[in-house]
């Protein structure tokens, strides 16, 4: 409510008011103007828009401000509801009372509304519940969600429900729904059909009862879907996941493993068949087989996956071969980010001299590459750069827990260094001799390099002058190269100041 009180006491006046004589009458007039309830003078639609940014309980509470505000909440088209029952299930009497209060509040909320439809509905139900009341909760949920106000023109639905529940069937047939986010223990075992003709974004997060059949049904019933976020844990009982969509442009997948031995009778598989996909973020420590079909439209990929010793059924050589094949399937990307887990798999293939390492693809369109490595992985970087003949920007991030270095300059120079690499960013510099020798290698062989930015940890600030002096005096392939050293905390500060300066410059144009 503080936002309303602060706005009510604010008002801009013409500059000529400031030139008036500070007489008693004028001071009194100014005080009266300053105390005017400017907010209540606004149109209803503006006030309802302001209330839509508040949690629904707070919006309802504004009805006590004055008669002007008494019924405004009834016309707000956004409901944001979080129950506060969690933790009271240990006391049956308190839990029952608070549960009934919450149910009565929700029922009255839908009964007394003036506006015929709701555009956005966000409902969070607490983690701790008396599970003997699940059937009753399902009845309440069905009544609220099936309300004509919800089902009529709703465009965004967000549900965080942390007890086993089936959502009403008619929820899966919302014609105007644009965004759907589901999280928790929602069940899909009775799902019969899906019809989301307008759905653009679908988020399925930590849904323990989600299976491949439900995923296929949700995707096939969403012909306009452009964004999918899917998060599952390794303990989820799924054998394979098949992401198939002609319309999908943005895909974020998080499959997390709890590091327990899998069922030996099957392997977990992930197949992505999205011919129009443009962005992929894949974090996968559960799938033993990965496959990417028709990735010609893919522009950006952010990858984090690797072999799990003692967990996977598949052998390391077979897994490494699969990873290299996956890289070949996405070789047309323009921007690529590889985690240290990806690099570790390639390193293992190189050390073991697996045939797949000699079949690394050429990333023909790649202009921006970001790689995160441990200190003992850096020697494989030239092999990766050899695969990026048109690279313009190379970002190298060192894990902060690195403790030793083993840099050895390769005999051959990657083509991108001599022809097109213009920017190198090295993050988390720790002052090791091997680090400096690696940077000297890049400076000496990068013939068109324009800028090298080195972000170092605060603990090594004393080395800034020595490192800068050494790098400035080493032989350079490009006379135009600028070397910049930045403390890690200063980088974030500069970014914040840049955004602030941009905000003020835009404000001054109005």
UniProtKB/TrEMBL annotation:
InterPro entries: F-box-like_dom_sf, F-box_AtFBL13-like, F-box_dom, FBD, FBL13/AtMIF1-like, LRR_dom_sf, LRR_FXL15/At3g58940/PEG3-like. Gene3D superfamilies: Ribonuclease Inhibitor (3.80.10.10). Residues 415-486 form the FBD domain. SUPFAM superfamilies: F-box domain (SSF81383), RNI-like (SSF52047). SMART domains: FBD (SM00579). Pfam families: F-box, FBD, LRR_At5g56370. This is FBD domain-containing protein. It comes from Salix dunnii.
